[in-house]
Write a structure and sequence with these properties.
This protein is an alpha+beta fold and 307 residues long. The protein has a domain of 209 residues: Alkaline Phosphatase, subunit A (3-Layer(aba) Sandwich). The protein has 9 helices and 8 strands. The strands form 3 sheets. Strands 5, 6, 7 and 8 form a 4-stranded antiparallel sheet that branches. The protein has a two-stranded parallel sheet with strand order 1-2. Strands 3-4 form a two-stranded antiparallel ribbon. Helix 2 packs parallel to helix 5. The longest helix has 32 residues.
Length: 307
């Protein structure tokens, strides 16, 4: 077989070939595991957990300290932006007793799953690809789920350290904090782990915003998207979205202010449709999601998934 390397990096990294094979063959519906069994990537007794994130955390704190000294400011000498990227919570699932102690065992349930014989072909393909096709015991499922939740607790602690640094630097009261993730985690739901799915556990992510002059303790039920983050940052910085060219998202600032959106904006968010696409090497088809929002006596969110 004559192998081609369209990516120049693949010509020097042999693993590119093996990683590309599932992508090249997925349309043929060749069903085989491409990931390790979830139990093989779960360790709840790791005393040196996530060293890369614990190296990143002090760098974020040091940046805040430099801002407080008048360094790291933008061209106007006033604005600054810190992107503090933490890898967890993310497979592999690794934790220890310290973080497991934050998990309330009584609230961690074993998810219900469909019998394998009636699963949608796209879901069964992905389950096989992710090595979650076998029947796991409740204890095995709970071990994976609790370990992931313990990683969430560790992430929460790290966020708290960043906020504490803002407090010490006297910057908390004029800083906007946005907590978000690029994807969720199936966490043994629907016989899956990882992401790669339009299921809620994978596609629904946290988007928490805190800042001066904003609503406090409010839950926004309108549909939003990660594409909205950049336009929101632009308006928060006093800029105009249109000056940055056509952007796919919209500013969420009207939803964040205490007075709420004006009537025109309220109608826009009430009638908004959010669409998404996903193309994964662990799926035998691509997926599209079209989610309209309907306001009646209560908020209804209906999503049409196309595979």
């Amino acid at each position: 077989m004559n192998l081609q390397f369209p990516d120049p990096l693949c010509s020097v990294h042999r693993h590119c070939v093996s990683q590309s094979l599932p992508i090249l063959t997925r349309s043929a519906d060749i069903r085989k595991a491409t990931k390790a069994d979830p139990l093989q990537i779960t360790n709840d007794n790791d005393n040196n957990v996530h060293p890369e994130d614990w190296k990143m955390l002090p760098k974020c704190i040091e940046f805040i300290e430099r801002v407080a000294r008048g360094q790291e400011l933008g061209g106007d000498g006033n604005h600054w932006l810190l992107y503090c990227s933490i890898n967890i919570p993310h497979p592999a699932f690794q934790t220890n007793a310290t973080w497991l102690s934050y998990v309330n065992d009584n609230k961690v349930a074993v998810p219900k799953v469909l019998p394998r014989e009636i699963m949608h072909p796209a879901d069964s393909y992905m389950s096989i690809s992710k090595s979650v096709w076998r029947n796991f015991t409740d204890d095995e499922i709970l071990k994976v789920r609790k370990t992931y939740l313990a990683m969430c607790a560790e992430t929460d602690y790290m966020l708290g350290e960043v906020i504490a640094a803002l407090d010490r630097a006297g910057l908390r009261n004029d800083t906007v904090i946005i907590f978000l993730s690029d994807h969720g985690e199936m966490n043994m739901e629907h016989r899956q782990v990882w992401k790669n799915s339009m299921k809620e556990a994978s596609a629904r992510v946290p988007l928490v915003v805190s800042g001066p002059g904003m609503r406090s303790g409010a839950v926004v039920t309108e549909l939003t998207s990660l594409l909205d983050v950049l336009p929101t940052l632009v308006t928060l910085g006093g800029g105009r979205v249109e000056d940055f060219g056509p952007l796919s998202g919209v500013s969420l600032l009207p939803l964040l202010l205490p007075q709420g959106p004006a009537e025109k904006e309220r109608m826009f968010f009430a009638e908004r449709t959010v669409d998404a696409e996903y193309h994964s090497n662990m799926g035998n088809v691509s997926a599209a999601s079209l989610c309209p929002q309907i306001m009646e006596d209560r908020l209804l969110i209906t999503c049409l998934h196309l595979s």
